[in-house]
Amino acid sequence: MKTLNLSDKKNMKGIAVSKGVAVGKAHLLDRSKLCIIKQTLEEHEVEKEIERFRDAIAKTKLQMADIKNRAEKIADKYAVILDTYTLLLDDEILVNDTIEKIRSLRTNAEWTLNQTLETFLNLFENTNDNYLKGKKDDLDLLVQAILRNLTGHSQETLSDIQEPVILITHSLSPSDTLSMPRKFIKGLATETGGKTSHVGIFAAALGIPAVTGIKDLTSQINSGEEIIVDGIDGEVIIHPNTDNTNHFLKKQENYRRYEEKLLINIHQPAETLDGYQIHLLANIESNQEVKTLHKFGAEGVGLYRTEFLYMSASSLPTEKELYENFKNIAQEIGDKPVVIRTLDIGMDKQLAEVEMSNENNPALGLRGIRFSLVKPDLFISQLKSILKASFYGNVKVLYPMISSVTEIIQANELLQKAKSILKKEQTPFNENIEVGAMIETPAATICIDHILDEVDFISIGSNDLIQYLLAIDRVNENVAHLYQPFHPSVIRSLKNIFDAKKAGKKISICGELGGDPMATMLLMGLGLIDSLSMEPHSIPKVKKIIRLIRLEEARQVADHVLNLKSVEEISHFLANEMRARFPDDFDRDISFQEKQKPA
Ligand code: PEP
Ligand code: MG
Question: How far is the CA of 256 from the centre of ligand 1 (A)?
Fold first, then answer.
């Protein structure tokens, strides 16, 4: 037990990963690591120990598969993430290295595995592979699961919780997230994890207010004590006084009402007051997400990131599997568009099944279309599946990471080849399937006029475009503060693209910027956009803004921004402008909180 003065209110800052506010009693879940002791084995005990280790791995695999099955019923996006665990359990270093070390060092499995974990964690720290780096917490959790299977150590289970609580813990394993009685979990706060970790994705998928990444959180509170989790501003308030509690209860109610109101116009068109209509589409990573799109008012799929299909499988998906997956989406979406992006592997998204050379600069390496062009068989197989699915709906194909017209020509040649194969096989497909290019490199923005000649549509990938324009690694936390969507060079590049618009060629934005309500008016004013594609839950707010502005006003805002010289000036101007026009949406001090924050 900790000795704390209960009247000591304390605000702790973390990462807001799932919006909403929870006020209630803390339930402290002890997920501290097991204490592992080193034991030396006799020669004759070694093989038996290895067998015990293999059994624990097999047991953990079964547990993970079971968890994944159950996760699919809750949230598909979450289930996809859990596949990483299975991949890690098949990993050479984790399993084989441990076995080799048990043999050579003659040490017990628990201690040896822990040593391997240390090596692995150090490797993650020093690697250039940001995807793996981001999975550090997940690997740690997985090893703890194996260790528990080795030691036979059982943990307090969450299924015992019988009343509404706010869950406080160091970390939460996938099995924790699935065994928790969700109706009783009002909020969640953890010491580890970020927005894209499985806890963040899980909480957001279920709408549980959550804050992660709060150091020393568990040493500051005991079970049963009052706590507030503010998933809007990323804060946890420990030992709140009555004023604090009332203030956050109000914030909670305001947020609930605000969310409810946003959904009212969800099935109306995204049309400005002066009649300019665009389409709001969804970015998806799994075919199962499609079922939920209607509830957010998505008018189709503007970006299907297909690499997750490859990353979540233990072997490369077959052409048939891909086709079934794409067809399923096309049929579900009906006559609305489904833009399928071809494999955008490399950089932060790696494939276990495909040998990739260790690149010093993966962001500038063999990624996106470059990878597909050197692996034509893999590419043609994907193109054939997309073509076959095009028979069942309004399917379009999108090439990622285009930096030259030549790449589009080469990709189109392979598309042609895929079409000829299908014709020979007498397999039906849409001969006139639309072809698009992602505009996410500075080279593509500069030669946009030539690119537009080669494609039916373009989709601006602002996430990468910002990274390459500003020379800021988009997943490097050391330069995260310099990753600035409102940098004048980003705005000018967008303007350059929009100005090159040609008759019949459609323009969309599918990077995060397209779903940022703070940018909506600016983007509408910068040029004639046909669609914006975003995380489905961003659609209601963006739609609300579009329906309340005039194109003429948006153009004035954009003209003004184009004359500003710095990120600070642009951010400040946009914040003031949007707050003045939409106080309920941008000024949280007014909308979700009372004007006067209590001390
Ligand atoms: C982008 O770069 O903006 C984009 C949408 O693609 P991804 O985030 O998958 O790289
Ligand atoms: Mg991209």
Answer: 31
Give the ligand 1 atom nearest the CA of 467: 2
Q: Report d(CA 230, CA 30) in Å as an integer.
A: 22
Q: What angle do CA 47, 51, 53 make, to 5 degrees?
A: 115
Q: How large is the average pLDDT for residues 533-539?
A: 89
Q: In angstroms, rounded to a whole number, what is the distance separating the alpha carbons of residues 61 and 365? A: 34
Please give the model's pTM, rounded to 2 decimal places. Answer: 0.72
- Measured between alpha carbons, how far is 502 from 271 in angstroms, rounded to an integer? 22
pLDDT level of residue 347 (50, 70, 90 thresholds): low
> Do residue 543 and residue 414 come from a single domain?
yes
The residue annotated as part of the active site, out of 198, 239, 487, 537, is 198
Decide the pairing of beta strands 301-305 and 277-284. Answer: parallel
Summarize pLDDT for 37-51 with one digit per residue, the tens: 888 999 999 999 999
Tell me: pLDDT of 131 over 70. Answer: no
Domain match, 493 and 546 both: yes
Bridge partners for 459 per DSSP: 438, 508
Dihedral over Cα of 390, 394, 400, 403: its sign? positive
Owning domain of residue 204: 10-30+158-261
Query: What's phi and psi for 214, nearest 5 deg?
Result: -100, 110
Residues for the chain: how many in total?
599
Rounded-to-integer distance, Cα 21 and Cα 423, Å:
56
The mean per-residue pLDDT over the stretch 578-583 comes to 92
510 counts as catalytic:
yes
* CA geometry: angle 344, 345, 347, nearest 5 deg: 110
Q: Which residues surround ligand 2, an ion (CB under 5 A)?
A: 440, 461, 464
User: Does the pLDDT of residue 512 top 60, yes or no?
Assistant: yes
Count other Cβ atoms within 10 Å, centred on residue 87: 16
Nearest CA to ligand 1 atom 8: 463
**Coil, strand, or helix at residue 356?**
coil
Does position 589 have pLDDT exceeding 50, yes or no? no
How many structural domains compose the chain?
A: 3
Is 447 catalytic? The answer is no
